[in-house]
Structures are given as structure tokens and as C-alpha cells.
Design brief:
Order of helices and strands: HHHHHH
Largest sheet: none
Structural class: mainly alpha
Radius of gyration: 18 Å
Distance between the termini: 29 Å
Length: about 140
């Protein structure tokens, strides 16, 4: 009993399935919204076709589904988790840059709430990546 009390405890909470599920749902919902609305990004006009590309949206959808699958089925396959985390962070970072273009360049402040939500998701993904213990 005393030995268990004297053992150093982990400073961080164990990796939670709920973090994978909520982040996966967020990314899937963002990707579905972008797939449905093909004119979401409009500024600058020369980059609008690239940002509204269906392949980019499908990549985000697949990354979100990977995270969702890892959370729902409690999968700890290293390749799957790392692939889902990496692609999700890249997807959200590109969205963040595109939305900053709209806020700064076009004074279109409708994206501020989405920017805050995406920053939260990126911080959550960084926490997941920090706490993830690969199998040895």
C-alpha cells in the first residue's frame, strides 16, 4: 500500500477515446459542410477554386473518419493514429490560413467563430499527439 502511494504518478491523464471522437466529429462535420457548400471560400478570387476543391474536402473527411474510427473502436494502431493526427492538423491549418485571408483581406468577420473552433481543435490534436504512447 505504501509502495503504491510512493510511486511517481503520471502527470497527464491517460489518453481518452472521447478526445478522438470529438475531434473526429468536428473535422468530419467541417468537411461535410465544405462538400455541401462549394462556394464557401471566395477571397482572393484567384485562390477560390483551389480552396473549394472537392479533393481537399475529401481528404479532411477521410482524416476525420480515421480519428473517429480510432476513438469509437479504441484502435491504437500507430500508423492509423499518426496518419489521422497529421492529416487532420494539416487540414485545419490550411483552413485557418484560408479563413484568415478572408478576415484580414476582405474584412469578412463571419469566420471568426470558426477560426476559434479550429484553433481549439488544433490544440486538442496537439494534446492527443503529445499524450499518445506508441506501442513498443
Amino acid at each position: 500500500m505504501l509502495r503504491q502511494l510512493l510511486k511517481p504518478r503520471l502527470k497527464f491523464s491517460p489518453l481518452n477515446r472521447w478526445n478522438f471522437i470529438k475531434t473526429g466529429l468536428l473535422i468530419v462535420s467541417l468537411a461535410v459542410c465544405f462538400i455541401v457548400d462549394r462556394t464557401y471560400f471566395f477571397y482572393p478570387p484567384s485562390l477560390a477554386p483551389a480552396w473549394n476543391n472537392i479533393y481537399f474536402d475529401a481528404t479532411g473527411l477521410i482524416a476525420g473518419l480515421i480519428l473517429l474510427t480510432c476513438g469509437v473502436f479504441n484502435l491504437h494502431v500507430d500508423l492509423l493514429v499518426k496518419l489521422g493526427l497529421g492529416i487532420s492538423v494539416a487540414f485545419l491549418t490550411v483552413l485557418l490560413v484560408a479563413e484568415f485571408f478572408h478576415v484580414v483581406g476582405a474584412d469578412y468577420y463571419r469566420f471568426l467563430a470558426v477560426i476559434i473552433l479550429e484553433l481549439y481543435a488544433i490544440i486538442n490534436l496537439m494534446q492527443l499527439a503529445f499524450e499518445y504512447q506508441p506501442r513498443r
